[in-house]
Each structure stands twice: as structure tokens, then as C-alpha cells.
Inverse folding.
């Protein structure tokens, strides 16, 4: 019994530590300031152009890696996910594609500053990148994303990694004029693949292991 | 630059550690032995009976907590999830309900031994319970499970926690005769809510942050 008791005590400590690390503080939407800056230039390309670009990039650099941020705020006592909306239709997590040899964390900070910070004012310490929540794979250029690698696929063409990014109590978001930053409740995302696609609609599941400490304004 | 360089080095170390902890070894299905034991007795109750039982249990003990195991094996170079099938229809993750005041880990080990080990031979060290992958909540007795708690719900009635359980290189599974233990590829579970329900069909997403080290037989 002595050994067993000791084992249990250790497990309880570990469980308590794990419990703490799974608690995420979120702050009211009203704590944040939202401004705008000049529009981002998007590639105005056809699907065929895009496919061609992806193929030649793959030939040159191999697997394309995208990093995306899960940023949360509180509204009506429910966690809301920050999404960028393009042309009143497509929803995207803030993030983008890594440069060759760029680390996940450096790349994500660069992309977040480009899309969410005032130009020239941002530095890497603006963003606290936390753990990787999930990865999605595109086995071929023309296929959808899957949350696993199939065994019959030689090399995946694209990998999208989602990271939890912890927001400070307050900050400014300065967003390009042709993008809209919106806050969507988790309950609206869940099982709403039609509107948000498989990756974003799956975020509530990826977050389900966390408890949210909602800090009152 | 010195401080910055130091910061980057620390992040790289952390990233490397995180990367290692996200690698999961899985072994071929053929490494495991499957046997059977006497059937488990199930409560043969109507939906109304079940509802009544859940309500009186909630009144007595509060939130009902279930713990379930994500157990993986390799087959055809693809990770497969072990599921229990009841009456050739319902699929379940191995696990069950905690006793009052029982810890998640103790309860899960007890349930796994009851459903997957020979009677009397099992001890807690049989099962290596890893991290919590996700939690699902039942806001009311008659509703579905959701991967978040709604703000307009006073107290949830049930919480189901999924844990990654790491299998050893080899072991025996001794399963009650009225249950079937089956291995289902992740690619068959994903987006197959109709067959497997929301919790099991979401497991591939919850596992997507891991890389699998498939150990050849």
C-alpha cells in the first residue's frame, strides 16, 4: 500500500499541474481596440493559376507549411474565436505560410503582426504563441485537408498547424481595410463546416480540453 | 540582439521538447492477443428509465463524469483506434463512469481492466494513462454532447473526458463475450458522425497534433 499511496500522490500532483496548464485566461472583447490600416494586396488568381503556383512552389521548396492562430476573447460569458473575413465571404484564422527555413513560431508572429498590428510598431514579443492544437494535411494539390496523413500518400503537399495564441489583457488590433476581424462564438463554429470549413469548425473540439478563466471587465 | 538570440534558443529547445512529447509510438495490431471472458451485464432499460436514473443520480451526486480511452494500434501503416462494439451497432470508446470522488486516472484504469483485461489478473500498472485530449459536455439530460460549456447553462449534467492511453509493445486484451473489440482506421472515423457519433468521429482531429512513430513488427 505504501508504494501505491506514493504513486497516487505523484499522479495527483501531475494531474494538478496538467489542470493548471489547461486553464486559459480570456478577456472581454471590450478590452481590445480595433483600428484599420491600408489594404493587403491579394493575389488575384484563378484556381488554375493557384494550382500551378502551388505545384511549382512544391517542386522548389517541398512541403508547404502554414501556421494559424487561435485567438480567443470573451463576449456574453462565452469564448469567441477571432477570425478574418475576406470579401464578406471567406473566413480565415489569422496566419499564413512560412518562409523556407522559418520556424513555426517566428513565422506565425510575423504573419500576426502583418495582419493584426500597426505597421512598423510590432515586434515579436507582441504575440505569445502557445501549444500546437492540431495539424491538417493536404495529401494532394487538389484535395481537401485531413487531420491525418494517409499511408498511401508519398509526401503531403501542405501542412497547416494551429497554435493557441494567448492574448494580453488589452491590446490594439490594426487590421488591413480589406479584411474584417470578427469574433465568433464557439457554439456557432461547432459542426458548422458549411460556413467555416473543416479546420475552423473543428476548433471548439481542439479547445475542449481547456477550461476558460473568464476575466470580468 | 543578444537577448533576442537567447530567447529564440529557448523557444527552439521548448519546441523540440514539445515535438518529442507529441510523438506517439504505435505497434502493429498483430502484436496483441485477443481473448474473451464472460459477458458483462448491461442495464436493460428504456430511454425513460435511463433518463430517470440520470436525474436521480444527478440529484444525489451532481455532475456525472465519464472517462474514455483513446487506444491506438497500427494496421496497413495507418493508425487505428480501438473501439468496443455492442450488439453489432453501437460503438464506444473503452471507459465508463467514475465513482463518486474517484480520480479520472484511477477510474479509467478500473474501467479499462474491467472491459479489456482478464478478471483478477489486472492491476493499475496495466494502463499508462496519458494526457487529456478533449472534453464533451451534456448541458441537459436529453441533449447531445458539445465540446464546450454554454454560458446559459447553470450546471452541466455530464462531462466525458477523453484520455490518450499508451499501449505497450504487446499485451493481451480479454474482452467480455457480448462486446467486440475492433480497430477502425482514423480515416474512416473522420467526418463519419452518422456511424460513430460526434465524440468518436472527432478523435482524428484531437490526435492531429501528434506524430505517430509506427514500430514495424
Amino acid at each position: 500500500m505504501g508504494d501505491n499511496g506514493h504513486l497516487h500522490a505523484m499522479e495527483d500532483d501531475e494531474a494538478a499541474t496538467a489542470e493548471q496548464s489547461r486553464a486559459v485566461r480570456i478577456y472581454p472583447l471590450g478590452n481590445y481596440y480595433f483600428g484599420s490600416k491600408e489594404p493587403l494586396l491579394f493575389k488575384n488568381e484563378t484556381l488554375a493559376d493557384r494550382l500551378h503556383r502551388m505545384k511549382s512552389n512544391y517542386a522548389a521548396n517541398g512541403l508547404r507549411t502554414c501556421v494559424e492562430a487561435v485567438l480567443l476573447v470573451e463576449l456574453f460569458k462565452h469564448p469567441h474565436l477571432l477570425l478574418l473575413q475576406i470579401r464578406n465571404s471567406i473566413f480565415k484564422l489569422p496566419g499564413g505560410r512560412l518562409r523556407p527555413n522559418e520556424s513555426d513560431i517566428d513565422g506565425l508572429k510575423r504573419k500576426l503582426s502583418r495582419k493584426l498590428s500597426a505597421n512598423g510598431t510590432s515586434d515579436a514579443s507582441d504575440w505569445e504563441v502557445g501549444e500546437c492544437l492540431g495539424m491538417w494535411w493536404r495529401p494532394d494539390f487538389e484535395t481537401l485537408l485531413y487531420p491525418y496523413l494517409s499511408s498511401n500518400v508519398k509526401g503531403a503537399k501542405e501542412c497547416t498547424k494551429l497554435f493557441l495564441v494567448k492574448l494580453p489583457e488589452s491590446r490594439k488590433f490594426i487590421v488591413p481595410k480589406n479584411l474584417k476581424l470578427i469574433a465568433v462564438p464557439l457554439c456557432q463554429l461547432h459542426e458548422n463546416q458549411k460556413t467555416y470549413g473543416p479546420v475552423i469548425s473543428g476548433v471548439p473540439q481542439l479547445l475542449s480540453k481547456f477550461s476558460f478563466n473568464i476575466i470580468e471587465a
Observations:
- Chain A has six helices and twelve strands.
- The two ends of chain A are 49 Å apart (CA to CA).
- The longest helix of chain A spans residues 2-21.
